[in-house]
Amino acid sequence: MHSQANILADLRLLFGARQKEIRAFHDQGGTGLRVVEALSDLADHLLLRGFQSINPTLIQEWGGTMVAIGGYGRRELSPASDIDLMFLFPEGRARQAERLASELLPFFWDLGYKVGHSVRSVEECIAAAKQDALIGTSLLESRFLTGDRGLFQQFHEAFFSKVVGKNLKDFLVQLDNGRAAGRKEFGATPYLLEPNLKQSPGGLRDIHHLRWVALARYRTNSLAQLFQWGLLSNAEYSSLTTALDFLWKIRNQLHFKAGKASDHLTMELQEELAPFFHFENRRELMRQYYILTGWVIEISDRFIRDAFPVSRWQRWQRAWQTRQAAPGFQLSAGEIVPQATNLHQFFGNDENLLRIFLLVKEHGARIPGPVLEVLHQVADQERDRPISPEAAVLFREILSKPGRIADTLRVMHRTHVLWRVIPEFARVQRLVQESRSHFFTVDEHSFRAVEEGERLAAEGGPIGKIYAGIQRKDLLHLALLLHDVGKGRDEDHSAVGAMLAEAAGVQLGYADEERALLVFLVRRHLILSEVALYRDFSNEPVLLQFASEVARPETLKKLFVLTCADIRAVGPGTWTSWKGELLLKLYGEALSILTGEEADPEERKVEMIVARLRQEAKGKYPEVWLEETVQGLIPRYLLTTPFEKVLADLSALFHLLIDPIHVAARYLPDSGMTEYTLYTYDQITPGLFSKMTGVLAAKGLQIMGAQVFTQSNGMVVDTFRVIDPDYTGPVPPDRIETISQAVRSVLIGQETIEALFTRGQRFGSHKEPPPTVAVRVELDNDSSHHFTIIDIFAPDRRGLLYVIAKTIFDLGLSVHSAKIATRLDQIVDVFYVQGPEGKKITDSEMIRKVKERLTNEIQQGSTGKGK
After folding, report:
1. Domain 2-170 has CATH 3.30.460.10
2. Do domains 2-170 and 194-251+262-309 have the same CATH topology?
3. What is the DSSP letter of 160?
4. HEC secondary structure over 412-469
5. Under CATH, which architecture does the 329-421 domain have?
6. CA diameter of the chain
7. CB-based contact 182:170 (threshold 8 Å)
8. What is the C-alpha end-to-end distance of the chain, expressed in Å?
9. Neighbours of 39 (CB within 10 A)
């Protein structure tokens, strides 16, 4: 025992000293690959030292082999990675192998290693690999450590003959399916705002897959060997090794810094990593990441596709199916192949340069890797020369019909050919967006917007029909491509984008009227969503102003589809049926105005809702109470609230005859939110809205949206959609009761908001990320006849809505209705208010005071100085 303690002490000293050396090498800019190899070698050395301390009799009885598998088998060990070991034993010696493992492994657990191990015979390895693809890939890169080398060789030969070689095509398909599943789980693109270094597309796992395929097909996983054999081009080999070193460096730094396995590259970590790697900011760091991982995807896809074995029959079939796709181009085995001996000269002709991409789109084909490299070189050499008018016509043809437009544009972007056509697009290459509401880089979001537009061609329902009826879809698709091209500058991106769209329109030969439409779509690409989601367009002035700006039905159709595609392209969960309904409603009413077909007047709609409400509620409530209550419901509430919710609200309002304060709650499974509705009377307490938001914030609820209404009879119906971070799924009844009691206590004066915050300690305990959105407060006196509308755009933080509501109350303003929305990292809040005299705020000094006070309160909170 004393001997083992001494051995462990020696190993700890060695482990600590060598770890410091490796960390110092990393901190001084050492290569990422050398660091993971050094850590793997250190683990080897410690394992062998520990192995030598075991009773020789036990080792002899075992008679097996210790094998490194998985990443450790590749000799790639990150600072906090697990070690995967296999104790291979001859038939009949499983018990001895288990005893040996139990003697050896405690050494390494004591050193802080996380060791996963298995105990198998050769036959068990083969059986497990056939049943489980993960086991198969981990055994594929097995590495001998110590023991019986002959047994290891027996295992190695059996594995490759029975698992890989005998079923090579099936094994490769299995690898490919695993890779596809991984990409689906971690996102289909590398251009995510917060990617996973290992699992996201283009990350380390894609390089692992390439090497697994190479090992199965060519019996080597060495990138250098693949390059020497001509299986990787010089550019591909250089790109892969550069990307691999870059990814390992980042991963090593994450592990060293956190002291644990860490692969999720959050925005906060990006900020911390950028200076370590000598980048000016996280945007530059991530731009490099996206460029390299983009090449990894393209190279690995090409390599794996070419590695699949082709039978003699398949080769004959490919030759037989080869045909002329266009003059100078053949379609062969799913690839467009130029028929020219000098490709640089051939693609120096702009028509040939664009035609190959048009053929790729039309035939759903690929471009061979060597040809892609030539296209890249030609595009860079001729970058300052505008494309010819004939080539511009071909590009417009690419945009004209839905189907693989986005995929084609992506390839044009990667080869820089798109930059020849639209030079402005080069600036947004892998440009990182500062807003958390966007999941992708600017260029990838733009391609996804085009993709979402194309998908509408096959979509039923009203949105698909609107897309189908659009004339000149090339202009729509071009607007989708360019709508965010102005980002990355200090000026408003829509205004900058409009100027760049004008230049692109000239380059592509569009007529004046066509360019004017393109410029409008880019400059005002946000207007439809702003009006539909954040304005009360049941107000006639709002609707008329919107329709007047759009001016034409065909423009409205294009703007509507652009808006839908843009929202859907932001990321998962950003498109909801609620947004779709509001956008369609605004579209329909604006179209009625523009086409001269009179929609139902607001008064008529309200009358129909009231009549239906009377019919549904008849006999359920006293007739006099029902009539007075229905007459008191304001038009804005009736027009914007689902009818089923109005019926539920009516029942709750009747409950106020017994209890003047009532709180109802229901879980919304589609969004994972809980909806709380407060029913009471306006005169029950001053500052009703601010107190309700204060209670919700003090209880730790994140307010994602709200609809606030004070009816003309003084009844209040305030509905809040919240996320409760303390629960997943439906909130238990006791939690709802706690919230309800807190609301009641505050409204009747038994409790204060400040006391709730003090007990809850919700503020100050959560580190907020740095704000990415500027605070903006606007007052609008034109869009409503009776109210001043306050628009607030600001970075979201906990309790912000309470701060805003309290400030509005302190200014002596009354909130008659409000529309609250949270877009992941920012709020877009709209308040319909009146001054102390029950009128609009028209005094210029008061307007200035409101804007200044709200801006200051929000900014103080966002910098950590506020409440």
Report:
1. yes
2. no
3. I
4. HHHCCHHHHHCHHHHHHCCCCCCCCCCCECHHHHHHHHHHHHHHHHHCCHHHHHHHHC
5. Orthogonal Bundle (1.10)
6. 98
7. no
8. 60
9. 25
Distance CA 622, CA 630 (A): 12
Looking at the DSSP bridge assignments, the partners of residue 192 are 440
Place of tokens 């001859």: 90
**Band of pLDDT at residue 437, cut at 50, 70 and 90:** low
Residues 567-583, mean pLDDT to the nearest whole number = 85
- Kindly report, residue by residue over 191-246, the tens digit of the pLDDT: 888 889 998 989 999 999 999 999 999 999 999 999 999 999 998 999 999 999 99
Structure tokens at 537: 């367009």
Pairing relationship of beta strands 788-795 and 776-780 according to DSSP bridges: antiparallel
Pairing relation of β-strands 83-88 and 115-120? parallel
Distance CA 546, CA 536 (A): 12
Distances (CA, A) of 540 to 546, 590, 602, 820, 831: 10, 11, 8, 21, 18
Do residues 54 and 108 touch, judged by C-beta distance below 8 A? no
Domain residue spans of the chain: 2-170, 194-251+262-309, 329-421, 428-599, 651-862
Mean pLDDT of the chain: 88
Nearest-CA neighbor of 796 among 838, 775, 826?
826
List, in order, residues 6 or more apart from 724 with CB less than 8 Å away.
Answer: 674, 700, 701, 702, 731, 735
0.90 surpassed by pTM: no
Closest CA to 641 of 598, 612, 671: 612
**Above 50 in pLDDT, residue 104?**
yes
Distance CA 338, CA 326 (A): 10
> In angstroms, what CA-CA distances link 491 with 495, 498, 527?
8, 12, 18
Residue 762 has pLDDT above 50, yes or no: no
How far is Cα 352 from Cα 40, in angstroms, rounded to an integer? 51
* 211: its two tokens: 């090497």
For residues 107-118, b (16+ Cβ closer than 10 Å) or e, as one string?
bbeebebebebb
| Close Cβ partners of 174 (under 8 Å, ≥ 6 residues apart) | 133, 136
Polymer length of the chain: 867
Helix residue spans in 53-148 (DSSP H): 56-62, 70-73, 94-110, 122-131, 133-140
Residues forming a β-bridge with 664 = 677
Q: Which CATH number fits domain 194-251+262-309: 1.20.120.330, 3.60.15.10, 3.90.1150.10, 3.10.450.710?
A: 1.20.120.330
Q: What percent of the chain has pLDDT over 70?
A: 93
Token output for 335: 């690839």
Q: Are strands 329-332 and 335-338 parallel, antiparallel or unpaired?
A: antiparallel
